[in-house]
Design goal:
globular, five-stranded parallel beta sheet, FAD/NAD(P)-binding domain, alpha/beta
Length: 444
């Protein structure tokens, strides 16, 4: 403890720089050449490839693993990037344990799948670290497309459009790009500034004019984008954070987990990042786990995740839940927040125990309280500042299977649209597919 004189409340420097550096090491270090060959040798190269079916971006997984096994990681990376230009980040953050690796034949037979995610990282790292970009731009089409949001969906869309010869103007509300890859993912999953390195590498294709600090609805409007460009793609994610809707939520130190993760990702000195002694995280998804684990790694003494439903309903995978508990995080299931206690600042939070009755969540009549000087909300985000012309469904922009919105000439994808689950890999697929539909639409 570098702040041994004050270990109560919210303080910075609970752990020294050396401890913090070790705590935030790479969660899954890159395989070396020998390890990659050994891991690739376990693949059966199944003809029906259930892993391909489970991959939202439809990467030919048996092919890219075979290319690693034959000593051609560059060809393997091209196979990956052809379907997923953000294959490097997805290899680090994708929940492979519930997607491709879950359906791996080795997993079914032995309980130990082929390490598809780590093999994907190995191949993509080889090419990215060489500085080589495997694609070249086609001849200019003379068409211009505006892409709003430099996160996974927007970047995948912009890159695919640029490859096909279109001119792309990429807008983002933040001072730098990457979206959730830069601001919303646990630091131990993406170390050494990888998100920005990947962004720079992706933009090296050319033909993409990036404009930061441009917020839709404030600095730019959908109507003007439609006038200035031949098509528009919206991939700005979700800007709002859902409320707990409990008494005392407005007390000091009741914060949103997304901002906490963002602050941590952008911090240059973790010893200066304040963290509570007793931290409670409300939620059951990946953001809740990322916030809780990082709170513990920063030196919080007591960290609890409270989720209102049972373990089987928690959207964070079993791997993520086990990761949390292995770091000393306690998970309490069937606990619904009722009231934040304290005078001015949070001192604790009351919960009601829940159970499911006829498919509906109900309280049991029993309750308990946890002491907490810092409470993080991780109960999902909501879209904000949506242009009035767009049809909304279930709180998101309504789109077709190819990303077309209700407004002619406007597509959308990623977290802000109704396409699919809130995963980086899904957002990439939606951005890529929308780009192909935009191209087809513009080129007839």
């Amino acid at each position: 403890m570098s702040n041994s004189e004050n270990t109560d409340g919210i303080v910075s420097g609970r752990l020294d720089a050396q401890h913090l550096s070790g705590n935030f090491n790479d969660l899954h270090p890159r395989l070396d050449d020998h390890e990659a060959l050994v891991a690739a040798d376990r693949c059966y190269f199944c003809y029906d490839a259930p892993c391909m079916t489970a991959c939202p971006t439809d990467i030919d997984i048996p092919l890219f693993i075979r290319q690693i096994s034959t000593g051609t990681p560059e060809a393997s990376a091209l196979t990956i990037f052809s379907q997923n230009i953000l294959g490097g980040m997805c290899a680090r953050v994708c929940p492979t344990e519930t997607l491709c690796e879950e359906v791996c034949v080795r997993e079914t037979a032995e309980g130990k799948p082929v390490e598809i995610g780590r093999l994907q990282r190995y191949a993509t790292d080889v090419v990215m670290q060489s500085g080589h970009h495997p694609f070249t731009r086609a001849v200019s089409t003379g068409k211009s497309i505006a892409v709003v949001g430099a996160g996974p969906a927007g970047l995948a869309c912009a890159h695919r459009l640029a490859v096909m010869g279109h001119a792309v103007t990429l807008f983002d509300a933040r001072p730098k790009g990457g979206g959730l890859n830069e601001f919303g993912i646990a630091s131990y999953k993406s170390v050494d500034g990888f998100a920005q390195k990947e962004l720079d590498w992706l933009l090296s294709i050319g033909g993409i004019d990036v404009r930061y600090d441009k917020m839709l609805g404030a600095d730019i409007t959908l109507e003007q984008l439609q006038v200035d460009h031949d098509a528009v793609f919206l991939g700005m994610g979700l800007g709002g954070v859902n409320a707990l809707q409990t008494d005392g939520e407005d007390k000091d130190n009741v914060l949103d987990a997304v901002s906490f993760i963002s602050d941590l990702r952008q911090a240059t000195d973790l010893t200066k990042l304040p963290i509570g002694k007793r931290v409670v995280v409300i939620g059951g998804g990946m953001t809740a786990v990322d916030a809780a684990v990082q709170a513990k790694l920063l030196g919080a003494l007591d960290v609890t995740i409270a989720y209102r439903r049972g373990k089987e309903r928690m959207s964070a995978s079993v791997f993520e839940q086990d990761l949390a508990t292995s770091k000393g995080v306690r998970i309490i299931y069937n606990a619904q927040p009722v009231k934040v206690t304290g005078n001015g600042a949070a001192a604790g939070i009351e919960f009601a125990y829940t159970h499911t009755v006829d498919g509906q969540l109900a309280t049991t009549g029993e309750s308990f309280e946890l002491q907490a000087d810092q409470i993080f909300k991780a109960i999902g985000q909501t879209i904000k500042d949506v242009p009035a012309a767009l049809a909304i469904e279930r709180g998101k922009i309504r789109v077709s299977e190819t990303g077309r919105s209700s407004v002619d000439g406007v597509w959308a994808g990623g977290d802000c649209a109704t396409g699919g689950d809130d995963l980086t890999v899904t957002a990439v697929a939606e951005g890529r597919d929308a780009a192909m539909d935009i191209h087809a639409s513009l080129m007839g």
